[in-house]
Design goal:
Layout (H helix, E strand, L loop, with lengths): L22 H9 L10 H4 L7 E3 L5 H7 L13 H12 L3 E8 L2 E11 L9 E9 L8 H15 L5 E3 L6 H9 L16
Parallel strand pairs: 4-5
Antiparallel strand pairs: 1-2, 2-3, 3-4
């Protein structure tokens, strides 16, 4: 279903963030070879009415990699064939959504939302959230929350029955941020195994 009207109002900053890209402009960008990641559905793209929250464009890889320096990366990776192939794979995957938030004509926040097909829960998929990051200097202003809300609308449009995320942070403020976004740490116990 469509995003609730109340969601369109979360972007009080939109007036100073420039005009939002319309669905028609999004289609035009696709025709020019800079399409957004995956397929933007009508009910999700309506979020662009007031926000500069959207799915990433193919030509914005460099911006994203630089943003990831604010996550856990120590340097921007070299533009190898493996990186190019990985990016192309992500771009073509309709279930892999990289959501970005723009301010001051640059990407300042992002998260990844992956829709995972599933055979249980009445054959309903679920969504996994990863790589939630905001550029230093833009934190605490709601940009990441807008990305997570956009991801939630994608998950709802895909009929997901749940969303999940993991955080390595133990900071109370970070944990409260995810709780405020609707997540809880009591329903499940997470385990992780790092592979070399």
């Amino acid at each position: 279903g469509s995003a609730p009207d109340s969601f369109f109002c979360v972007c009080a900053r939109s007036a100073r963030r420039g005009p939002a890209r319309t669905p028609a402009e999004t289609a035009s960008k696709r025709e020019k070879g800079t399409r957004p990641l995956g397929t933007i559905r009508k009910d999700v793209s309506t979020l662009q009415r007031c926000c500069m929250v959207r799915e990433i464009y193919e030509n914005e890889l460099s911006q994203l990699l630089n943003l990831y320096l604010s996550l856990h990366e120590a340097s921007v990776p070299e533009m190898t064939e493996h990186l190019k192939t990985t990016w192309e794979t992500i771009i073509k995957d309709k279930n892999h959504h990289i959501i970005v938030n723009e301010a001051d004509n640059k990407i300042v926040s992002s998260c990844v939302c992956v829709i995972i097909p599933n055979l249980t829960r009445k054959v309903r998929p679920y969504a996994f959230i990863e790589n939630v990051v905001t550029l230093k200097g833009y934190r605490g202003k709601g940009y990441a929350t807008e990305c997570l809300n956009y991801a939630k609308e994608i998950a709802k449009a895909e009929n997901c029955y749940k969303m999940m995320l993991l955080t390595g942070s133990k900071e109370a403020s970070i944990l409260q941020f995810y709780r405020s976004a609707g997540y809880n740490s009591s329903d499940k116990t997470a385990f992780i195994q790092w592979l070399e």
